[in-house]
């Protein structure tokens, strides 16, 4: 192979790498449009994944494993909460599993309707993630890494892992 041919192939390869990199950053930018200050420690939930069946999103801070619940209510809104009970979290078993249209605390058995997620604070129910702790666009819900770090206390004794 002559030197001209090798240079041409190298140029084509380099151009392909540059195009792929630019494409990656364009796609990455589009997926975060209308979201400000998104950083690597945020939890990003694609709205297309969320349905009436609760989905549990893992998150880890240091050696503390956490989960966020995302579920679509009957009015079509997506509700989010920490997968831990505001009362039972210290037991290590204060997490929820879905049964029908309810979330059931695995420590005390309290049943919590999906329609109430993110609407009720206090008591034996999942810790709501309110609007001030997340951002949304058409495609995603981004939960603040700062909020998640502040909420790690709820998961220190968690036994769901």
Give the topology, please.
Layout: H1 3-31, E1 43-46, E2 55-61, E3 64-72, E4 78-85, E5 96-99, E6 102-105, E7 111-113, E8 126-128, E9 134-136, E10 140-143, H2 145-150
Antiparallel strand pairs: 1-10, 2-3, 3-4, 4-8, 5-6, 6-7, 9-10
Structural class: alpha+beta
Strand content: 25-35%
Topology as H/E string? HEEEEEEEEEEH
Question: What does the overall shape look like?
Answer: globular
> Which sheet architecture does the biggest sheet show?
4 strands, antiparallel
CATH class of the largest domain: Mainly Beta
In the predicted model, the low-confidence regions spanning at least 5 consecutive residues are 14-18, 20-38
Give a count of the beta strands, DSSP E runs of length 2 or more. 10
For the record, the CATH architecture of the largest domain stands as: 3-layer Sandwich
Number of domains: 2
Question: Termini, distance in Å?
Answer: 58 Å
Rg over alpha carbons: 21 Å
Q: CATH fold name of the largest domain, please?
A: Rieske Iron-sulfur Protein
Can you list the strand order of the major beta sheet?
Answer: 2-3-4-8
Q: Helix content range of the residues, please?
A: 10-25%
Mean pLDDT: 82
Explain this structure to me?
With 161 residues, the chain is an alpha+beta fold. The protein has two domains: 1-31; 43-155, 3-layer Sandwich (Rieske Iron-sulfur Protein), CATH 2.102.10. Helices cover 22% and strands 30% of the residues. The chain is built from two helices and ten strands, in the order H-E-E-E-E-E-E-E-E-E-E-H. It has a four-stranded antiparallel β-sheet with strand order 2-3-4-8, with no helix packed on it. Strand 9 (134-136) and strand 10 form a beta hairpin. The longest helix has 29 residues, at 3-31. 27% of the residues are buried. Residues 14-18 and 20-38 have low confidence and may be disordered.
